[in-house]
């Protein structure tokens, strides 16, 4: 339902979040929460008391978003909210399993929430325009155009470049508002069809991208004196375990990662086709000309990368913002393509009635993008879990009978025990024996790390609004 102008303009700011506002000269509108890793984010409490207590025991809460994945914004833009709602409704009505019906119902409600979010901002644009004077004719015209775009993409798929950026940003805001710190993916590839179908100039497209950057950075605080501590219990969870994150090091980490350039995502043999385009250049220029903390830009490089784009990237780095981060496609694609080889062993397909297939398609490897912490991900195709151990621990354990030297001191005397008790150093007669013992400790520590990762996997899952993309 539409609200009257006074109700819209006088809405309360909950917990100081200020996620519902608009400026008359804005091109892209919406409101990001104050969600950096260190600052945390207020999220709506929806668990029952019993669920909340069970979550507390597991170290989780409503704020235990995982993030660290790349949503499939291409799917969102190609279909639009209306078609996605219709598809989820059909799946809901056809489902027999109550758990599946609940999931599809949650998905429908989440999509409707994004649609209502856009309509509320459309109402705000209209209400704000009515407060402007006759001398602010340009601002009134701009707000009318913003309102029209918002009402269109609230149901329909975008038909212009500005509409595509607006729908993507609004959905990104809604995902972030649920406490999910997700990145943005290969936006020069995702948005290119909408630029090519539009009649705007590259200068106009640059202005839209610049506006998009400013909105992503809007809540970043550069001065720690103005930082508010929003970390609740269970703040952000990776690998099934929540924070809190160290605030001295992660207050300015906003996870807003954009990846551009690289290779076309297909299965063609060979080195693949370069994927650089006009938008690649515009994103690099936005990072160069806007001295912002967020978003971070990653540029996928190839040996046949156009020379002018390499010059643009060098100029951007020299501007002082450390962007773009340079990624080597030749190495990363090969590694990601082979990352699923023979996982689980040769007999897994037979044992699981062909339900298990760990092989990675070349197309998926070529479509990688960085999440907010820079891990390469399969865009729109993978979930995130975190595990591992410092490999030098295995060497310390080999030399110190299963203990680490780093922890030796008043608390753990000769070091904390983290592995099996192996023979003392004086009984190791050769370097080959040390190497053999190192790998024995390595295997034990690795198995323990993997076991912990598997046990934690599934403790928390993404909110329905993220799962649909």
Can you offer a commentary on this structure?
With 469 residues, this protein is mainly alpha-helical. 46% of the residues lie in helices and 5% in strands. Strands 3-4-5 form a 3-stranded parallel sheet. Helix 4 runs antiparallel to helix 5, helix 6 (161-177) packs parallel to helix 9 (202-217) and helix 9 packs across helix 11. It is globular. The two termini are 26 Å apart. The mean pLDDT is 90.
Quick overview of this protein structure:
The chain is mainly α and 469 residues long. It has helices spanning 5-9, 49-57, 73-94, 98-129, 137-153, 161-177, 187-190, 192-196, 202-217, 247-250, 278-289, 307-321, 329-337, 348-351, 362-366, 392-399, 431-456, 464-467; strands at residues 237-238, 241-242, 257-261, 296-301, 325-328, 368-370, 376-378.
């Amino acid at each position: 339902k539409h609200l009257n102008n006074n109700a819209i303009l006088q809405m309360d700011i909950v917990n100081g979040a200020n996620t519902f506002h608009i400026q008359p000269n804005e091109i892209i509108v919406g409101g990001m929460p104050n969600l950096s890793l260190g600052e945390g984010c207020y999220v709506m409490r929806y668990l029952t008391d019993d669920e909340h207590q069970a979550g507390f025991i597991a170290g989780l809460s409503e704020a235990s978003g995982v993030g660290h994945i790349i949503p499939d914004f291409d799917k969102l833009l190609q279909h639009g909210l209306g078609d996605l709602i219709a598809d989820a409704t059909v799946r809901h009505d056809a489902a027999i399993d109550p758990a599946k019906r609940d999931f599809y119902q949650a998905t429908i409600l989440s999509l409707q929430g994004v649609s209502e979010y856009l309509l509320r901002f459309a109402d705000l644009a209209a209400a704000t325009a009515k407060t402007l004077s006759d001398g602010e004719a340009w601002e009134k015209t701009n707000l009318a155009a913003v309102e029209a775009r918002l009402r269109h993409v609230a149901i329909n798929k975008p038909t212009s470049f500005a509409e595509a950026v607006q729908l993507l940003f609004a959905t990104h805001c809604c995902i972030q508002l649920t406490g999910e710190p997700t990145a943005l993916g290969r936006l020069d590839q995702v948005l290119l069809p909408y630029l090519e179908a539009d009649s705007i100039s590259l200068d106009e497209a640059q202005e839209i991208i610049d506006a998009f950057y400013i909105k992503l950075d809007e809540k970043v605080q550069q001065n720690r004196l103005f930082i508010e501590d929003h970390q609740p219990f269970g703040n952000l969870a990776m690998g099934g375990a929540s924070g809190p994150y160290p605030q001295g090091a992660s207050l300015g980490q906003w996870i807003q990662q954009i990846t551009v350039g690289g290779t076309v995502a297909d299965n063609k043999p060979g080195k693949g086709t370069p994927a650089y385009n006009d938008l690649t250049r515009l994103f690099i220029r936005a990072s160069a000309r806007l001295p912002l903390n967020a978003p971070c830009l990653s540029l996928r490089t190839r040996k046949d990368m156009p020379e002018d784009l390499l010059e643009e990237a060098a100029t951007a780095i020299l501007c002082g913002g450390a962007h773009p981060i340079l990624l080597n496609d030749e190495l990363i694609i090969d590694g990601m393509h082979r990352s699923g080889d023979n996982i689980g062993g040769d007999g897994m397909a037979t044992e699981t009635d062909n339900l298990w297939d760990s092989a990675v398609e070349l197309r998926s490897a070529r479509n990688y993008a960085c999440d907010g912490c820079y891990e390469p991900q399969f865009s729109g195709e993978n979930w995130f879990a975190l595990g591992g151990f410092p490999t030098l621990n295995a060497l310390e354990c080999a030399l110190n009978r299963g203990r680490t030297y780093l922890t030796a001191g008043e608390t753990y005397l000769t070091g904390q025990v983290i592995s099996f008790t192996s023979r003392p150093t004086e009984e190791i007669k050769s370097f080959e024996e040390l190497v053999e013992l190192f790998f024995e400790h390595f295997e034990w520590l690795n198995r323990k790390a993997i076991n912990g990762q598997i046990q934690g996997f599934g403790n928390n899952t993404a909110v329905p609004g993220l799962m649909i993309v």
